[in-house]
Specification:
It contains 2 helices and 12 strands, in the order αββββββββββββα. The protein is an alpha+beta fold.
Length: 183
């Protein structure tokens, strides 16, 4: 095996490892943390707030506008939690850099008898809301919450990269031993 063939194989492996695993292959995890409720009744207190997690199969991306269907979601308002029901609706608008600027999240359990909502239309209006039918509600209309976005590397991709590196080292070792070159 010539050194040129080995170099070409290594270059091909590097290209596959670099471009074969794009960020779009990983789930995107959106985490929302709202401010404490300012108006409360019933079981809610001013230390309760809306918080939640949405897992998407693909990232929202830059300059995105539209509804998404999550792989899973879970939202809580400090009194109740709604997770993976059929009543969730998720709308996002991102900036040119991918930052979430506008959103409408409705996690409604039991057909609006209990609901957890958060939405903003940008700088004008923000609303975090928890509601239990006939029991009470909590809301914050003053302070928008904060979104964080993470893109974990898929485990299979990590294993692929590790295996590729080990295979490359094995080929290099066999090449050196066959040519009488000792490390």
């Amino acid at each position: 095996m010539s050194l040129k063939i080995l170099a070409a194989a290594a270059a091909a492996q590097l290209i596959l490892a670099t471009f074969g695993l794009s960020k779009a292959n990983a789930d995107e995890i959106l985490t929302y943390t709202g401010g404490d409720f300012t108006d409360v009744s019933g079981p809610y207190s001013t230390s309760d707030s809306v918080s939640g997690t949405i897992v998407l199969a693909t990232p929202l991306g830059d300059s995105f506008t539209g509804y998404v269907t999550p792989v899973s979601f879970s939202f809580s308002d400090g009194v109740q939690t709604d997770a993976n029901t059929n009543e969730g609706r998720f709308y996002f608008v991102t900036s040119a850099s991918g930052t979430i600027g506008t959103w409408q999240i409705y996690a409604d359990a039991n057909n609006y008898d209990n609901e957890i909502d958060t939405w903003t239309d940008g700088p004008r209006e923000t609303y975090d809301y928890g509601y239990i039918s006939a029991s009470g509600e909590g809301s914050n209309t003053d302070t928008p919450g904060v979104w964080s976005i993470s893109n974990p590397i898929p485990e299979s991709g990590t294993i692929y990269l590790l295996g590729s590196g080990l295979l490359g080292l094995l080929i290099l070792r066999r090449y050196r031993l066959g040519r009488g070159i000792h490390p």
